[in-house]
Amino acid sequence: DTEVTQTPKHLVMGMTNKKSLKCEQHMGHRAMYWYKQKAKKPPELMFVYSYEKLSINESVPSRFSPECPNSSLLNLHLHALQPEDSALYLCASRSENQPQHFGDGTRLSIL
Amino acid sequence: GEDVEQSLFLSVREGDSSVINCTYTDSSSTYLYWYKQEPGAGLQLLTYIFSNMDMKQDQRLTVLLNKKDKHLSLRIADTQTGDSAIYFCSDFSSNTGKLIFGQGTTLQVKP
Fold first, then answer.
1. Of B107, B104, B101, B105, whose CA–CA distance to B4 is shortest?
2. What is the DSSP string of B90-107?
């Protein structure tokens, strides 16, 4: 069964807060991804981890800090975000030569 | 650079067939995917096709690939109101290791 679990589903935070988004998969996938998606637009790639090492950073501002503590878990630490950072944040994972599977996302609102 | 294009909107009547079209530019494509996104949800992998295939059928879904013209289509037979969603065509680029998304086609199904 393919499942990527993201928590929390919704998050509201002020611009001075620090929070974290969590993503978990137990499918043995060795590549994990963070995307940002604005309403009615395609997802935009932020980070890629391959075998627990950061392999792609799409010039994301440092107020977003990814972390991959183990092969099943991916975090996105948030600090001093701006209102324009309000979006749906999607996590995905894949194994070699297979499709990416997405979680349901965390809807983030910055006050 | 690599690009994926698709029309933005399609409206059909319940019971009719829907055809969503997509074109891509990447000559190194290995897999091409169709994702479905319902309001407030993440991306659901609908189906995918390997670049050396011409057609793939999966229940009500038929994917056609014209590799010469770099044209991909998704046909949904007997379209239901539950098929109303945004459909993203995407191409996995083996050059960059990234998934390239089209802008998404909003499918509206009228009863």
1. B101
2. EEEETTTTEEEE---EEE
pLDDT digits over B13-62, tens only?
999 999 999 999 987 778 899 999 999 899 999 999 998 899 999 999 99
Q: Which of B90, B24, B35, B34 is nearest to B63 (CA)?
A: B34
Integer-rounded Cα Rg, in Å, for chain B is: 13
B51 vs A32, residue with greater confidence: A32
Mean pLDDT of B81-91: 96
Which candidate in B30, B43, B58, B91 is best for mutational testing of the A interface (most A CBs within 10 A)? B43
Torsions phi, psi for B81 (to 5 deg): -60, -30
Peptide linkage before B111 cis (omega within 30 of 0): no
Average pLDDT over residues A23-42: 96
Which residues from B are below 8 Å from A when comparing CB atoms?
A: 30-31, 33, 35, 40-45, 48, 86, 88, 90, 92, 97-99, 101-104, 106
Which residues contact residue B59 at a Cβ distance below 8 angstroms, ignoring those fewer than 6 apart?
Answer: none
What are the tokens at A42? 């395609």
Burial of residue A45 (CB within 10 Å: 0-12, 13-18, 19+) is: buried
